[in-house]
Amino acid sequence: MSREIKSVQQLQVQNVAPNDFKDRLIKLIPAEIIAAYVTISGLIIGFAKHKPNADQSNLLWIIILVLMILTPVYLMKVLGISKKGQILFSTIGFLIWAFATASPYTNDVLGFSIELITSLILILYTLLIPLFYKG
In terms of C-beta distances under 8 Å and separation of at least 24 residues, what long-range contacts does 121-129 make, across chains too? Predict the structure, then answer.
């Protein structure tokens, strides 16, 4: 299965059904990039537990920046995705996943932890974007 979302116009030419909600949901999540971030952040956080003076926050920011830049490159070069909208929404999705799983930002927002807020945003974003983005 190709990871690029197929629009109704594209599929009419090819005489195939357009991607449904479930297919768009899966194709908008940059799973490999998220897995890389979760693994790297876990290593950084685990190492910081053994080195109490280690500043994990700056390193997490650098990793987020590198993976955010890598996401569109990976989607285009490795997965062959050419749709700018899909690349943009997947990159935004990575950022939301990163802050929801291991955020380098530690301040509370409106009295709630950033992980809680971004987790709620993640749920809404993941469920709503495939409803609106059709390819």
Answer: 121/96, 122/96, 122/97, 125/92, 125/93, 125/96, 126/25, 126/28, 126/29, 126/93, 127/25, 129/28, 129/89, 129/93
